[in-house]
């Protein structure tokens, strides 16, 4: 028998997934208030409420789409606030919340641990708290290294050391959290010939988008002794997500290169083609930074990139979309369904039918949401279906790539993009679970009857 | 022990679904040869092979898309051949094959019964032969009534009785088989103010697209005595498919009317809006005839109608697409998945998880196929994504509505549309089953491991 305090009844009735959504909403609210402060704005500019809200949602969801040019409307204070918001969103409101708890030395109770578990989708309560601490250490270490490398390298690009390191810090946070915001006004186009800068950015984006569990497992492996390594077994999740992630990047780059071989890449050298297509493929995972104006690509390439953005990043990462694992499971489900297999094995493990069912449902929900949003945008905006589909997929995948139309959209469309960014970051599964009533099982059974599928 | 004739070994290794595909291919081949005969063509015309093939595939799959204006290129003989081909495709190669067997008095063996069962997706062998006979009787009766009513009514439209009844016969076959071909060159636009003609056509289209099992069950009910009726129980399939079919038509008409309320319907009377939107909604189930130039509708309406066409008709009907039952099961799956229900009941029956899994897989396959085709067409044709998506969905749903671009497509695009029509008619599930090896179950089990979905 546990003691029961009636004042906390409402909190006990809230599910972990509902709490996560409440936390994200609170984070958006706070960021909006902060970014609305006049001290964050450039002089003589007038930001509308919807644009401040859009920037806050975009930063918390680490998307990076912006309805106004950031550097024209926000001053250094504003940019620091945006970086802080990205950090908050990228590492996750829950992780940061846990960190605060740890700092203040409080013992983390069952409720909070359940919360963390649901956000990072971990299958067991055990070690959730230590996991959170590890996440923070890993991410901050990556960001620190990125900041030092980029800041130092930027000394040749910027007039003062202060500016170089400020740009380096923002770039490192923006890449690692997959925030995708740029304060130069032209993303990484400035560095389109500097392969070192591009390589560092790609590395940071991948580390932020490949999923925290993968980072933690790899960290364990690296720091383990030779003897221990023989006993370390990577989880099925880590194997599946890493393979899918890398296959998407490599295949993505190849297809992007092929689809524009007669157009944008027609007169480019092999190393230009390699870096342009590779960077654009990596960035569709959820990065959002870009080394070119993607509007210069062919329509089929923009549609292909829309599909890549729809897939998004790995679960428990800074990215959005339906997630790489969902995509992998759908591909596996379709392949085995087409072959008529009853039982599905990968990496010598059998997959739960329930997981496959989840994956295909999430995918269909995603398609319905994205397609409906695109049809609404296409009908109220003067842009083509391809253009709005690109922007919609970019928002849902919390990628932030843009054909440059977001700033010209009406307020209704901006609200739709905000909802997509929020949903993409929270994840369809978490969002749906937040709608569940606590008890949903029926105790009676009707007779089963088959249906012709057609 | 049964006797075994080695000469028929290959036939025993062919699965029923593979045989169905072979029969359809044979039907396309024969129709192509017939339609290529110069006696079927108008004088001084020159039909290319690809256009003859396109017409044959379109007729066998009862789609009705045409790459050339039928009445300009085919004479009366050609039109009769097309009507015959539609009849063949609409009633189904299998049904007709069975009928020939019955006519010749041969006892239908196990193999052939299995064949019929697979084509009509019936769950038991029992009564399959008698079912086929009933199908033919029902369809021919409907066509005969349609022919007599339309032919007689057309006396006021056409100069001679012969022409009126010829037009009535073609119209009845085209509507009942959901063939959708028109020999007037402008579909039913000629009858856009004649609500009687439209009503008869809608009725015939619905009867052809609602699925043979429904017709048979309703026929049983109608011809049963009052006492017997108390014991007749409609199957879950009939209930689900009929409700879905009617909901799609009514909701479809309402949305079509709303999406163009400020545009095409702006200055129309209530009865014009009613009949225009209702007819266009009915025709997207798979009919393909139309009372207006659908290109006059808004872009969002064309996209909405594309989605309706993608869904298509009921299984075991003359239509295509992913089928109404698949759509219904996906909606049910999504609804229950979103609510977190473990067990899914409709009409006091529990649905098999396997059927739901089939439905979502078929849907994702459909989306992938349609989207990929649209991207290819958009990249090689000078038309917008919306335009090619409409044409692609029309082909996949074997609907035959067109924004008028099919005749201007390149040969590659025509081949893609042909493949879509074929796949839409055969059905994704039958097509996938035809790829199966006979034995596909593994005898060993790997340990199961959970995956984070995201
Ligand atoms: K991003
Ligand atoms: K049709």
From TrEMBL, chains A, B:
It is found in: Cell membrane. One of its GO terms (molecular function) is monoatomic cation transmembrane transporter activity. Keywords: Cell membrane, Ion transport, Membrane, Transmembrane, Transmembrane helix, Transport. It is a multi-pass membrane protein. It comes from the Bacteria. One of its GO terms (biological process) is metal ion transport. The chain crosses the membrane at residues 20-40, 79-104, 135-155, 195-216, 236-259, 318-338, 359-380, 415-435. The keyword Protein biosynthesis does not apply. GO terms for cellular component: plasma membrane. This is Potassium uptake protein, TrkH family.
């Amino acid at each position: 028998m546990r003691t029961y305090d009636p004042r906390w009844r409402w909190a006990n009735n809230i599910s972990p997934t509902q709490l996560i959504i409440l936390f994200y909403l609170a984070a958006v609210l706070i960021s909006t208030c902060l970014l609305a402060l006049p001290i964050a704005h450039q002089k003589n500019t007038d930001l509308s409420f919807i644009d401040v809200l859009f920037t806050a949602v975009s930063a918390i969801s680490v998307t990076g789409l912006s309805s106004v040019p950031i550097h024209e409307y926000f001053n250094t204070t504003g940019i620091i606030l945006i970086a802080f918001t990205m950090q908050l969103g990228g590492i996750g409101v829950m992780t940061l919340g846990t960190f605060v708890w740890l700092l203040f030395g409080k013992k983390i109770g069952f409720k909070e641990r359940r919360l963390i578990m649901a956000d990072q989708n971990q299958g067991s309560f055990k070690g959730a708290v230590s996991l959170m601490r590890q996440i923070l250490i890993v991410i901050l270490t990556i960001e620190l290294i990125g900041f030092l490398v980029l800041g130092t390298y930027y000394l040749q690009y910027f007039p003062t050391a202060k500016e170089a390191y400020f740009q380096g810090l923002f770039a490192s946070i923006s890449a690692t959290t997959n925030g995708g915001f740029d304060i130069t006004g032209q993303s990484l186009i400035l560095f389109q010939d500097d392969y070192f800068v591009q390589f560092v950015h790609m590395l940071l984006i991948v580390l932020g988008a490949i999923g925290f569990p993968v980072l933690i497992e790899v960290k364990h492996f690296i720091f383990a002794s030779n003897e221990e390594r023989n006993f370390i077994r990577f989880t099925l999740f880590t194997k599946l997500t890493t393979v899918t992630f890398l296959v998407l990047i490599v295949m993505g780059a190849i297809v992007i290169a092929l689809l524009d071989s007669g157009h944008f890449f027609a007169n480019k050298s092999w190393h230009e083609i390699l870096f342009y297509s590779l960077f654009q493929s990596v960035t569709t995972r959820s990065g959002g930074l870009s080394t070119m104006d993607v509007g210069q690509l062919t329509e089929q390439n923009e549609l292909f990139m829309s599909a890549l953005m729809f897939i998004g990043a790995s679960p428990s990462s800074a990215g959005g979309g339906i997630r790489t694992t969902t995509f992998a499971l759908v591909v596996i489900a379709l392949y085995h369904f087409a072959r008529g297999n009853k039982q599905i094995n990968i990496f010598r493990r059998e997959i739960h039918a329930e997981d496959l069912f989840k994956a295909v449902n999430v995918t269909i929900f995603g398609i319905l949401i994205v397609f409906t949003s695109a049809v609404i945008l296409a009908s109220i905006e003067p842009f083509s279906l391809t253009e709005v589909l690109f922007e919609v997929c970019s928002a849902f995948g919390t990628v932030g790539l843009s054909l440059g139309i977001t700033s010209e959209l009406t307020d209704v469309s901006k609200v739709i993009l905000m909802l997509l960014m929020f949903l993409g970051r929270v994840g369809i599964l978490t969002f749906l679970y937040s709608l569940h009533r606590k008890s949903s099982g029926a105790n009676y059974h009707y007779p089963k009857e088959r249906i012709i599928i057609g």
